[in-house]
Amino acid sequence: MAEVINAHNTPRWERLRYFIHLSKKNPLFLIGVGVVVLLVFAAVFAPWITPYPQDAKYAIKFISKLKPPSMDHFFGTDALGRDIFTRVIFGARMSIKIGVTVLAIALAIGVPLGLVAGYFGGRIDDIIMRLSDIFLAFPSLLLPLVIAAALGPSITNAMIAIAVAWFPWYVRIVRAQVLTVKEQLYVEAARSIGVSRFSILFKHVLPNSMAPVIIQASMDMGYTILTAAGLSFIGVGARPPTVEWGLMITDARAYFLDFWWTVTFPGLAIFVTVLAFNLVGDGLRDILDPKVRD
Amino acid sequence: MKKYIGKRLAFTLLVLFGVCTITFFVSRVIPGDPASMWAGPKHTQEQLEAARRELGLDRPLLVQYLDYMGNLLMGDLGVSIRTKQPVLEEVGRRYAATFELVTVSILIALVIGVPMGVISAVRKDKAIDHASRAFSISGVAMPVFWLGLILQMTLHGNLGWFPLQGRIGSMVLIDHPINDITGFYLFDSLITGNWPAFFSSIKYMALPALTMSFASLAIVTRITRSSMLEVMREDYVQTATAYGVSRRTILYKYALKNALIPTITIIGLAYGLMLGGSVLVESIFDWPGLGSYIVLSITRNDFPGIVGSTLVFATTYLTINLIVDLIYFFVDPRIKHPGSKG
Amino acid sequence: MKKSILILVLVLALALPGAVLTAGAADRNTFVFASYGDVKDWDPAIAFSLEVFMLRQVYEGLTVYNTPGEKPLILPGLATSWTTSDDGLTWTFNLRKGVKFHDGEPFNAAAVKYVIDRNKKLGKGAAFIWAAVKEVKVVDDHTVQFLLKYPAPIDIIASAQYCAWMYSPKAGEKGTDWFMQGNAIGTGPYKVDKWDKSQQTVLSAFKGYWGGWMDNNFKRVILKVVTEESTQVQMLKSGEADAASLIPIDSIPGLKKDPAVAMLTPPSWKNYMYLINVKKFPTDNLKIRQAINYACDYQGVIDGVLNGGGSIPSGPIPATMWGHDPNLRIYDFNLEKAKKLVEESGIAKDKLKITIAYIGTSQVYSNVAQMLQANLAQIGITVELLPGPWGTIWDKAKNLETAPNMQSMAWWPTYPTPSDWLIGLWRTEDKTLFNLSHYSNPKYDKLVDDGAAAEGLDKARAIELYSKAQKILVDDAVAVFYADVNDQAGMRADIGGFIYNPSYNIARIYDLYRK
What is the pLDDT of residues B195-206, one digit of tens each? Predict the structure, then answer.
């Protein structure tokens, strides 16, 4: 079934058709995709769909500070009088940027290392795995936290910190998959014919190892955004005037009990976004790897 | 078996050494001068230089590193630059607070999550299953610090049920002090019969534990459900049903036991999640634990504090994982557990 | 499974009534103070921060600075009277009789000498306030003399909230490490009962206090560690705390409306400013500095950020401090003037980039910085904001290579004198400490040095010299002085006896009572 999608010799368009067919059977996956599409739309068209686009940068209007939600301001205003609805929409830009950047870096480092470790084995494998183990010994937020603090507060540094702390996960995943694929018949066949090792690596092993990576990456989109928000919350992530959801929450932390809307809506935005990516990741797993399906 | 444990321990020590080294050098890169912190908020130039000498910061970094590692091997984690107290004592005290909170949170996750997962699997596709699936998917998507603030707002602000912060009531701490045996308030007060302290601790732990356990609760529910479903499809279960063995017996004797195996693995993951989450949750609730300690250490360039707490965090995490692996080993030698892990 | 549910229900059933039973609020005779941090430096010779919350209850100094406006300027404390010689180099203090330390030791001249000598020898914290003292002489048991190197107002210095507390010599002998275990031996009305680290410090009434006890005095004080500002506000509202130490600026209007809370925002000796780096491009250009001064929305800060809790400054010295010159103010909020000055500076548009550093966790600093960033954008200056913890940004600012163009700063005196600002912030420093404007002007240096020397003898002359010095600062636009900040004193409405005093960060709880 899903072997059709993974199989090496089914024509591409047929694989896509089958993929779409399976997707339709999975409503949660479609909802997730829908929300993600909405998110990207909001991010791209933010300046045009928001009522106060200037509030995303330099506008300060003390006169309208800390107003509760109303028809003028759907999500109310913050301590500098800026429209929270607008800033939440603009925050989507930053969140997508964070997710994509972190994953790009993590994959760029992790996938090659995983390939090398898994395919060549031996000494190289040992070294790479030991190093990964050291990184993975830090419980979740800790390593990004210390690295981000060392680099200095900025959303860019936070992204680097998270990517550096997370790439070992991908090393592991890719390596595990490579170990399985390595034993497959067609790889052995190619080897016996005399195809070069690197050719096998890139043409056969890599494409067939990507499924779990794709699944993990789509789940991680959400976790990246969560982690970045957490770092901003502590103060080692985004700083003003960057519009980032975690930063919005921590800015309002001191007085949120009196002004509930300042914290509720940015948090909801994070929640909905992460949920959407989780649904997508879940759905992908169902479709691409039926052994784990319910 | 012994060889395996021996190998794992040696390996763990190696990894911890790596963790220490990385943390030491990274925390020294954090912008800011620790001598400045030590000398005080409004110090003079002479005080600054004196502080630098006192802390040994005028020596080359490598020397400082070797000195630190040497002391570490003898159990001396140095003195906190932020509080001027010995790090070992502080970390030990705060660690008890965090470990207690995390363990209670794990218990909540298990005590509520496992039954919920089982019910959900047994009543698959009914309303309760949908509800619990919705919950488990959203549980992990929730930003834990936001959840903490929301709970504070609703359960304290609007309803007034739970206290806002702290580990125990102020007056209780004065009138019914807890004997410091393990550092775990619940345990210590329980075994000394200190009921006011016991109940006060539970009350103060409610919101932080609820916040911490949320994501793990979701995961436990979900894993229990899916592994129950796998097991229930297995041949031997089908056979037993065909033979007329009662549903309840099947549930408890066969299905649940095997379904719990992946749940045990999740405990390791959950501990890691929560230890990391403590960094966010403890500050909100003024929980005097290691999570808030490391945040304070990081924001005040307290590198002994940073390395000390990271070491303890990593050790805990690795130890838990080792224990989980061992349990797995014992629980699962002969049984072919269904499917592959996700 | 049913069993686990049963256990859960059982635990809850036990916990809930227990929870209700132990709803233990503090009794009427206990004062609960929400402190934003735990006590760090227990040694009174070293403490220089929020330890004062504890120090002021447990220790006493020779004198007490009276509420500004009241007479006399200085009140007796452990000293009942004092005189000074004509040349101002000898101060003689007559000490109160019959005072004992918490450990039973008598308070006498020998104790005073011990404390001052030890504080000077340790040289930590605020020890610099005793810099003028050459020798402390014990005349007799209750008379002590300070022999000075140069004239200095020892009566004022002795009232300082740091490094001037009298502690038992026996305790001093045990050393800093002993203090650091949570010990304190003073003469004050309260003694330390216990220190639950990171949670609270408990003080109780010292029966042998020389001031005596009345029925309505507070017999116990709890200094509770509450690091979250929002929590402090809630505790104040609910009565769980009788006073709070860190109330977010935006919660203050709400608290003022709350009948159960007495939220005061009295004028203080604190002011906020941006120190402009005069050695770093492009703020090394006078016109740019002046432009920045014109781009600050001063009224907006007072109304919009501080919610009315402050006033527009007249210069470097807050209006509440002697020596301030009310005629100094020259910069107002005028974007047109600012734009013109930027053009006159002749600097290319794309080179007009500056950095502003501030303490990231402060809402006020953050909001003012963002306001300034928005306004400067309008006159063509791009601002990069650099928030961070104090330790980090101070370090960077001290070094010219890493210093920002503008450094957010709050300043208040260790004891009331304009020289604290004028010398502390702008006098030439070989190795930069607080002169984060990196300003060096020999003419200015001479004025403030002479002023400080004159303070002890001829206040009028000191004021005159200080005025000249301040004018130089304002003309050179070394800083943006944007607010004389009001202090915040949030207390339960049923607490009586509180009179705000800017010299001390906390009241003497002994003076308070519950109505």
Answer: 899 999 999 999
Provide φ and ψ at C362, rounded to 5°.
-90, 120
**Between B137, B157, B226, which is nearest A278 by CB?**
B137
Contact B40 C49 (CB under 8 A): yes
Chain C: closest CA distance from residue B53 (Å): 14
Mean pLDDT of chain B: 85
Rg, chain C, Cα only: 25
- In three-state form (DSSP H/G/I as H, E/B as E, the rest C), the secondary structure along A156-208 is HHHHHHHHHHHHHHHHHHHHHHHHHHHCCHHHHHHHHHCCCHHHHHHHHHHHH
In C, which residues are within 8 Å of A54 by CB distance? none
State the burial class of residue C327 (Cβ atoms within 10 Å of its Cβ: 0-12, 13-18, 19+): exposed
User: Taking CB atoms and an 8 Å cutoff, what residues of chain A touch B280?
Assistant: 141, 230, 233-234
Is C250 touching A (CB cutoff 8 A)? yes
Cα-flanking dihedrals φ and ψ of residue C244, to 5°? -125, 150
B30 — pLDDT class (breaks 50, 70, 90): confident
Residue range C435-489, pLDDT digits in tens: 999 999 999 999 999 998 888 778 899 999 999 999 999 999 999 999 999 999 9
pLDDT at C111: 95
Alpha carbon distance A199, A180 (integer Å): 18
C407: three-class secondary structure by DSSP: strand
Contacts of C180 in chain B (CB under 8 A): 84-85
Residue C61 in contact with residue B211, Cβ under 8 Å?
no
What was the pLDDT predicted at B337? 42
pTM for this prediction: 0.87
Phi, psi (rounded to 5 degrees) for A279: -65, -40
CA–CA separation, A148 and B298 (whole Å): 10
How far apart are the C-alpha atoms of C267 and C364, rounded to whole Å? 17
Distances (CA, A) of C2 to B105, B119, C114: 20, 11, 71
- In the block, which residue shows the tokens 């090398």? A116
Asked if pLDDT for residue B6 goes beyond 90, the answer is no
* Residues of C in Cβ contact (< 8 Å) with A255: 229-230, 233, 248, 250-251, 363
Asked if residue C77 lies in contact with residue C205, where contact means CB atoms within 8 angstroms, the answer is: no
Cross-chain Cβ contact C5/B115 below 8 Å: yes
User: Structure tokens of C144?
Assistant: 């002590």
Mean local confidence (pLDDT), C126-137:
93
Residues of chain C with C-beta less than 8 angstroms from the C-beta of B47: 123-124
Residues 6+ apart with CB under 8 A from C333: C294, C295, C296, C297, C298, C299, C300
Q: Do strands C406-411 and C353-359 pair parallel, antiparallel, or not at all (unpaired)?
A: parallel
| Sign (positive or negative) of CA dihedral C491, C497, C500, C504 | negative
Beta strand residue intervals within C29-182, DSSP E: 30-35, 63-65, 74-76, 79-84, 90-95, 133-140, 143-148
Q: What is the DSSP letter of C136?
A: E
Cβ-Cβ contacts under 8 Å for C397 (sequence gap 6 or more): C357, C403, C404, C407, C432, C436
Q: What is the pLDDT of residues C87-98, one digit of tens each?
A: 889 999 999 999
Q: Is the pLDDT of residue B339 over 70?
A: no
Contact present, C220 and C203 (Cβ < 8 Å): yes
Instruction: Express as a percent the part of chain B with pLDDT over 90.
Output: 32
Provide the chain B residues 67-96 that lie in CB contact (below 8 A) with chain C: 82-85, 90, 93-94
| pLDDT (tens digit per residue) in C386-437 | 988 888 888 889 989 999 999 999 999 888 889 999 999 999 988 888 999 9
Token digits for B3? 């060889």
ipTM of this complex prediction, to 2 decimal places? 0.84
Would an 8 Å CB–CB cutoff place B27 in contact with chain A? Answer: yes
